[in-house]
Amino acid sequence: MRMECFLTDNARRLGGKTALVAGGRRLTYAELDALSDRLAAGLAACGVRRDDRVLVFADNSWEAAVAIYAALKAGAAFSPINPSTKADKLAYIVGNCRPAAIVTQARLAAVAAEARAIAGAEGMTIVSTEARGGAAPDGTVSFSRLLATDAAPPAHGGIDVDLGMLIYTSGSTGRPKGVMMTHRNMDAASHSITTLLENREDDVIVSVLPLAFNYGLYQLLMAIRVGATLVLEKSFAFPQAVFERMREEGATGFPLVPTMSAMMLQMRDLAPGFLPSLRYITNTAATLPPTHIAQLRTLFPQAKIYSMYGLTECKRCTCLPPEELDRRPGSVGIAIPNTEVFVVDDEGRPAAAGTAGELVVRGPHVMQGYWGDPEATAQALRPGFHPWEKVLYTGDLFRADEDGFLYFIARKDDIIKTRGEKVAPREVEAVLHAHPGIADAVVFGVADAILGHAVAAMVVAADPALTERDVIRHCAARLEDYMVPKSVEFRAELPKTDTGKVSRRLAAETVEPAQ
Amino acid sequence: MERGSSEMIDTIRDSVRDFIVENFLFGDAAHAPADDESLIENDIVDSTGILELVAFIEESFGFSVADADIVPANLDTLDRIAAFVAGRTSAAAA
């Protein structure tokens, strides 16, 4: 089934029910359906056709949700872009997938325009919301003008094996890769997870995770699928305000990353049981430390805690049944419904219990490949059990216990997981090397109580006057917030292996003694 | 009395602005937030940044910020932070 059909079907069935609460606005299923119909017609009028790409470059907002469904209703695939993405990187993505349109907000329209100029993509329409009390920025099409036109979405003729989403993820090469997901892939993933979580129409899910992040995006897709209510918050900066909103709305579901539970751990005045309506908590991106689990149990005694693991290339792979949490606290569980996972050795043969190997994923949720990158696709998608299928090599090392429960060990590459997001050290190093005052640089992760890992840089300065602040500011102007190094150390030379290669591992060990 | 408290508010606002420029804008004073500009909406301070800001306030102004006070009404603009801190410090002095 195509993903927008869940919205149209539920609008017919539950028209007056609240679908989305965001930015002070409440939208019923009927309203979300009608608004996305109108925007789809507007996008079509701007030249968006079946199989085109539409970038959605915005904060968590009702406009972003409308744009996602509008792109699908226009027959296009949407691509959610982190709102802290800078013009250079956005230009790379624009050049990579050649979108027909980008839907953004007034604050970010200048970045979109700059990216369009850098990429030489004059044909890309920029649709922007209005600045507060003003018009849409110059050179953009007004979002509200498109919504004001009462028109039906185009009859695009698309089916569910068409591309529904292109979602960019950090690649170890330092260039983002566009993960291709069909409607059918997203249908399978969202069905599997909502089955597991026993999601229902009366669920109220409160999410502070960005829609540009797979985990955040699926909160929308899953809520709309089951006819539930999604409350979108922009961030977890003010946890008390989020909790207040959860109380008001009667939240039943709360998706977390460990950085959020680490922030909650620092709060002093939370009373156990303060959110009695909460039915479940999910966690992914990194394993919850036992102290976090204990704290969540105390605060939310009635809520089930689902510890999950996944990657953009298949959305979600495993989940630990809540009743196993005490017995196997470090485990990310077993395959989610209607999927298989297994650990293989270097030759691709199943590894024995307790032996480390690469995790391989099989199922209808596995991506179609990376946009325009057959080489990287061939690395990730390899022949499976049957002649007709491809399975996903995750690049993550795991081991299974005697009962088949899985434990994450490490990445096979150098990807850093910080605040739940993946950072490719090479992407940060490329930005550092572009600074005229830097002769050489290496980027690595160091353990951090809040972030999981913090991005750190070690630099050889060509300019003796260069300061840590200069380096961080240079990065902040060019990288998404979460990629900017938290610390910079200056050295006369970088740590190298015996063969003379710069070593991220040795660099990390000099900063953080190996345990 | 009135003048004294508005001077105090100015001093607090300046010191918080310096902290934000130094720690979140890496010394780039040209992009310092206006006094009534939302720190979150404008991407100046992120989730973990608020924790750093709270730690700075506790350390500089010598009072402990309760969880219930870490809300946008108290901390989302320089003006609100200055008013919140001034309220707390004068309450403690009284």
Kindly summarize this structure in a few lines:
The complex is a heterodimer of chains A (515) and B (94). In chain A, strands 4-3-5-6-7 form a 5-stranded parallel β-sheet, sandwiched between helices. In chain A, strands 12-13-14-15-16 form a 5-stranded mixed β-sheet, with helices on both faces. In chain A, strands 17, 18, 20, 21 and 22 form a 5-stranded antiparallel β-sheet that branches. Chain A is built from 15 helices and 27 strands.
Description:
The complex is a heterodimer of chains A (515) and B (94). Chain A has 515 residues and is α/β, with parallel strands linked by helices. Chain A has 3 domains: 3-193, Rossmann fold; 236-411, Rossmann fold (3-Layer(aba) Sandwich), CATH 3.40.50.12780; 416-511, GMP Synthetase, Chain A, domain 3, CATH 3.30.300.30. Chain A is 31% helix and 26% strand. In chain A, β26 (452-461), α14 and β27 (487-490) form a beta-alpha-beta unit. In chain A, α1 crosses α2, α4 crosses α5 and α7 crosses α8 (214-226). Chain B is an all-alpha fold and 94 residues long. Chain B has a single domain (2-93), classed as Non-ribosomal Peptide Synthetase Peptidyl Carrier Protein, Chain A (Orthogonal Bundle), CATH 1.10.1200. Chain B contains 4 helices and no strands. Chain B is globular, with a radius of gyration of 13 Å. The model of chain B has no long low-confidence stretch (mean pLDDT 87). The A-B interface holds A 59, 83-84, 107, 208, 234-241, 244, 259-260, 263, 266-270, 419, 450-451, 469-470, 472-473, 476, 481 and B 25-28, 40-43, 45-51, 66-68, 70-72, 75-76.
